[in-house]
Amino acid sequence: MNRTVRIQLHPTPEQARALTETLAQFTIAFNEVCASGWQHQEKNGGRLHHLTYYPTKERCPGLVSDLLIQARVKATEALKSVFDRKARGRKVSQPRSRHCPVRYNKKTYTLNWETHTVRLSTSAGKLSIPFQVPSSGARYWGAKVATADLCVRKGKYWLHVVVSLPEPDVAPTAEVIGVDLGLNRPAVTSTRRFLGQRHWKEVDRRHFRLRRALQSKGTKSARRHQAAYRLRPMWARDKPPASIRRSLDDTIEERSNTIICKLGATIHGEILAKYLSTSIHIIKNARIMLSAPFWSHHCAVRSLQQ
Fold first, then answer.
1. Do 157 and 261 fall within a single domain?
2. Residue 2 forms beta bridges with which residues?
């Protein structure tokens, strides 16, 4: 299974300028491929490669060939998504990015866990940059790395590294616990145990009303306050999901089967279901299944035991 570790880079001023230039050229290459694919209504990666490789190479001389290919791959993914939405009758427009994250693979970057350094291909050549792993990612220390994305946010450089972990050995068991993500209560188990607090929903509604009022105002001050008030939903913040997960740790036994039902298919249910399924799978070695909102408990149990 794969997990993503978000590590912060600490480049020198010269290295920061090289990373910024690399991000700018990668964004240009991405937008060039998207524009060409949109103009010719083409989403095939091979044909887009032959159509755009040499023009993007002339416009982005600082990028090595593999980074140009990764820009084309990301643009192909964006074009396929847009054309799929168009085929379903939804409104679409040409994909375009202002700051496209640079995608690295084993050919363009090397990460050393022991020396806390990562070697990246940039417009100024290969650079060795120190990094810092947050405490939340300490359990992935030394894992095998796959791809990585270079991002910049508020002047800080981040590398989102995908690590590969072995699948836990989960022994089959007859115990099945259902977790229902409701609308009035955040979650309830099949043993009639309610998790979370009712007032979380009202806090979330208050945040939504404030964001809607700021958006409808449309003034410069409202946009500034909206950017400063960019909060995640209450159910997706750190403390509520963590408290629910700790309560589930007491309920769910080691290596048990767990069903998480996304009732109502709300965005809060989607976020909370993904968080709980990942946390319980890692901590309790439980077998997790996300069931559809309309499934009965008996149907989900039968599917999980197959």
1. no
2. 164
Give the full edge-to-edge strand order of the sheet including 287-291.
194-195, 187-189, 176-181, 257-262, 287-291
CA distance 270 to 283: 20
pLDDT score at 264: 40
- Residues in the chain with pLDDT values less than 50: 233-240, 254-271, 275, 279-306
- Largest distance between two CA atoms of the chain: 64
Give the model's pLDDT for residue 190. 67
Q: Is residue 278 part of a domain?
A: yes
Q: Is 261 exposed, middle or buried (0-12, 13-18, 19+ CB in 10 A)?
A: buried
Last residue of a domain, one of 114, 140, 166: 166
Nearest-angstrom CA–CA distance, 291 and 275: 15
Q: What is the pLDDT of residue 168?
A: 67
Cβ atoms 129, 121 nearer than 8 A = no
Token output for 132: 């810092």
pLDDT value for 205: 77
User: By residue range, what is the domain housing residue 104?
Assistant: 1-166
pLDDT digits (tens, 9 = 90+) for 204-246: 778 778 888 888 888 888 888 777 766 554 444 444 455 555 5
142/163 Cα distance (integer angstroms): 9
Residue 269 Rama label (left phi>0; alpha psi -120 to 50; beta):
alpha
pLDDT at 296: 44
Calpha distance 73→61 (Å, rounded): 18
| Cα→Cα distances 207→185, 199, 232, 278, Å | 18, 13, 9, 27
Task: Supply the DSSP string of 186-234, one letter for each residue.
Answer: SEEETTS-EES-THHHHHHHHHHHHHHHHHHH-SHHHHHHHHHT----G
- CB atoms near residue 104 (< 10 Å): 25
